[in-house]
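Researcher: Here's the sequence for the chain we discussed earlier.
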Amino acid sequence: MFDGQNRTHTARGLRAPSLRGCAASCVATAVVVSLAGCSAVGTAHERQAPLPRAGAPALGPAAPREKRGTTLSRALRPVLPRGDTRLAVAVLDLDSADQEIASYGKSATFETASIIKVGILATLLLQAQDEGRELTVDERQYAEAMIRTSDNYAADVLWHAIGEAEGLGAANERLGLSSTRGGPGIRWGLTRTTATDQIRLLHAVFARDPVASARSSQGLNQASRAYIGDLMGSITEEQDWGVSAAASRGSRWALKNGWLQRSTTGLWIINSVGQVTVHGHRYLVSVLSGGNRSMEAGISLVERAARAAVGAASAHARPWPQ
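Model: Thanks. This is the structure I predict for it:
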């Protein structure tokens, strides 16, 4: 089933026709989709185009060093799963002058399960910005339940409110996501994405630029970004797993997890995305996995991959010029 608690909320400001049964319908549809449709994890470890930083000075050529993707690939070797389990990882050091995403399994796509809830909220906030308004009381109630407790009914309502896959696609284009496709109909959990696209979404939320997006004039404003970050930093205790395992003890983190078991195979999709702080450096981390034999095995894989990714990124730390 899709993760999260299916709590019932009363909608006063939103109409959600035929959505009270959405969570059950979404679950029933998701679990019958075969893993055979998943593309194989790629093995290329190519460098990604640097993400923009407003006002950053131009940098001269860096001394030759191992490519970030190569470092990440090497760090992941002890972690890589055997058999049919699939893994993709991406990481970005927000406090490095060289704003470059390192990725493993760059082109591999995975079904999101509930990590798409960050994208749903970002889309809702962009639409509200376009309309020159704040979120309504009901929208905030649903948004908070959707992120903090991974509530599926709240996601059903807001998925409908944003215009489902079409609305999500328009927001993705504005935020620079190029390989994410919304799930069919009401099945938001079947949205497909890449680890690199999830880093780009996180960058739109957590970067320190005045407006962090591929098209800055159309990105999330500071209030919207702070709202998403606050919710991701205050999820319920039982969902504190995944990329948060890579954070330094006592440091702040913000995340969203997704988990989904397939009825056809009994195998699990386990995903985790977010920001962690390690020795004063902030890292964006995205770990996507499929074909896990259990939820526990998937969580262990994701956490080990997150630690390896941050370790690899820290080897390339390069401070901003003063």
